[in-house]
Design a protein that fits this description.
The chain has 101 residues and is mainly α. The chain contains four helices and no strands.
């Protein structure tokens, strides 16, 4: 939601920062769901994509979102949509996990 503020201004730098933070948070969720320790962000997407609990094509989708980022409202909107879809996938596992506890 916060990243969408960048759309009206074509602010790719702000959008990229928000997208990075979003992926960093999703990585934390994935590492926790898979009961693994997240050391830092370096290589975390690649590691997370090997987990048993992970959205389909996680790494490819994240990379696609960042590749789309350019100073245009269309590209920012498309990048945000990809990350929102990944978040929806994650809430399926996280929601089920939370209810089971």
């Amino acid at each position: 939601m916060v990243a969408s503020k960048a759309i009206a201004r074509d602010d790719v730098v702000y959008a990229a920062g928000c997208c990075f933070r979003s992926v960093a948070c999703m990585n934390q969720v994935l590492f926790a769901l898979n009961e693994d320790y997240l050391l830092n962000e370096k290589g975390a997407v690649a590691i997370a994509s090997t987990f048993a609990i992970c959205p389909i094509d996680y790494q490819q989708r994240v990379e696609q979102a960042f590749a789309l980022l350019a100073a245009s409202s269309k590209s920012i909107t498309e990048a945000i949509a990809i990350l929102e879809a990944i978040e929806d996938d994650l809430s399926h596992w996280y929601g089920n996990r939370r209810l089971a506890m």
